[in-house]
Amino acid sequence: MKGRDMMMYEVMRKAEFVVPVYQRNYDWTEKQCGRLFDDLENLVARGLRNHFFGSVVISGGGLFEDQAIIDGQQRITTLYLLYAAICQAFLKDGTEEGRKWAEVIRSEYLFSDSGVKGPLKLRLKLVKDDAAALTAIANGAAGPGGSNVTENYAYIAERIERSPCSLRELVEAMERLVVITVQLGDGDDPQSVFESLNSTGLDLSEGDKIRNFVLMDIPLKDQEHYYEQYWNVVERNTDYDVSSFARHYLAMANGVSPKKSGVYEAFKETNSGKDMTEVLAVLRDRSETWRQIAQANTGIHPMDKVLERLDRLDLDVLSPYIMGLLTSMGEGALGPEEVTRSLSVVESYVFRRWVAGVATSGLNKVFVTLHRDVLRALNDNGELTYDQALRSVLKEKTGSSRFIDDTTFRHSVATRDFYRGVKANMRCYVFDRIENGDSPERVDVVGSMEAEKPTLTIEHVMPQTLTPEWRRALGPEAQEIHETWVNRIANLTLTGYNSRYSNKPFSEKRDMEDGFSDSRVHLNSWVAAQDEWTLDQLKERNRMMQELFLELWPGVEDAPCLKSPNRSTVSLADDPATNKTLASWTLWDDTHKEGYWRNMYVDVLKTLAEADPDRLRQVALQLGNNCFSSGQTPQTNVRIAADLWAHTGMSVWRIVRNLCRIFEGLDLDPEDLTFEVVQKGRD
Hints:
The protein is α+β, with helices and mostly antiparallel strands and 683 residues long. The protein is 53% helix and 11% strand. It is built from 30 helices and 17 strands. Helix 11 crosses helix 15 (319-330). The longest helix is centred in the N-terminal third of the chain and has 21 residues, at 73-93. It is globular, with a radius of gyration of 33 Å.
């Protein structure tokens, strides 16, 4: 690697630059261009000798031959736009001197003469659409719309027109820009340099960094092929949100979900040393799976219907599991029927938890390892199908990860408020499911509820505001009945005529034109058959709804018990230690293989001490001698930090209880500490 100070104009007029396809497009906006123009005007106004313009990192060939821009394409591109705008301004001047200046700029900064007949070659080749825009502008034509190249050129041209500086003064100011030019040699790693020199002032996304990582290692002559045939496909399949896709792909592949800001580092650690062409092939295949999930378009109709419903649940944490499931199907390990049934099991699992009001915070830890947990159980219980093994694994979840049982679910269906505070996507999901079930003859509930002018809305059979007629119909307990039942599922249905129903008595809602009796909505059939709407009808419809919910979202209580040792992942918020052997533990996405609870306890405390020793000492003072001491006595004490020792001669139950108290004292989420455990005592 060689670096030296150079005048920027010397670099530009003697080199032909290529922006590799793995680089992002030209992203500077008027803000950055305006700052550069202000600097140039300041150079003129103050008569400064030079102005530092940052660094440019290039590789390939000699210093003044064709070379790839590793870092600095934003500022170099902006200078080309400046030269192009000044060139056109000189031509617009119409004088002989102006034409001469324009020709100098064209020949020294914009185009190079290769000696071959045909169009002159632009000294800078950008990526894709940016290249077409820059070529048009350099040739005096209008660039295509929608490109930052075109928009910034128009801004620069406008600044030139109203600048107090003359065209020659602006050119001379540009000749005073100094850069540090870094030339990479054969032994230099362009990716490492790129990571340490991001000089555009615009943060790279995690996806940008991954693109650079996988393409930069491929020879320059092959990069365009792999960009078009692989990376560009990945971008299209992920709707250009590669960062999110990569995060879930890594969670599926590694069993650990990286932080959003650490996706690139996790990807780099996972794939360093691998053949990048093979990595790109895998990414392309997995992105196709991602597209199928996002669009609910596997080509298998029953499966796609479940995927559509899962999408309405708006649970991002499901993606790693579903990716693993569909990947196994694509590899021929699972059949479509098994996969469809498994997706339905997951649907029941997450929906039952929502109805019961169980927090979703622990689901990330469940789904990031669920596929491998099921495959392990399937391997130990070969007579089961995948979906049967899935039901058995979920049946064994406890605490905040538990599968809501039928009794709890039935009670929650009866008592939950299905109206107030329920998000629009969940309303659509619930009422579409209970209206249509799995029937091929469907009412378009979702489309009707989500339309700009909805043609179906939720209707309270007993209205939200009681009228005297309704109070008489409900009897002396009317107020209590109303407060208890108004927003429960037993009192809710769908109608296209909500405003016309208003607070009318039940018989009018039923018999009016377009009333319950005329409704095309199946949910209204039983309602329309009633003579009145009182507590008796609410209780009976409540019972019917309980049975319907149990049918549509079945439980796992009849799932077979796993006969062989089964590993599962539980969190500190669960009951991680009862009759279980420790296999590994994970804190803040950092996993440690460990078979002893005592060793885990010590290492977790040391990790907490490294993160914030003062706060841990404060908690230690609060918990007292049952957990900590200031000395080594007794011999079972282990040093955690300076002047802080932890008692370790205790039962596993006590270890877990102490950790719960410590996490509570530190205001830490117990879901952040998870354990891979093996159930004891299996035949």
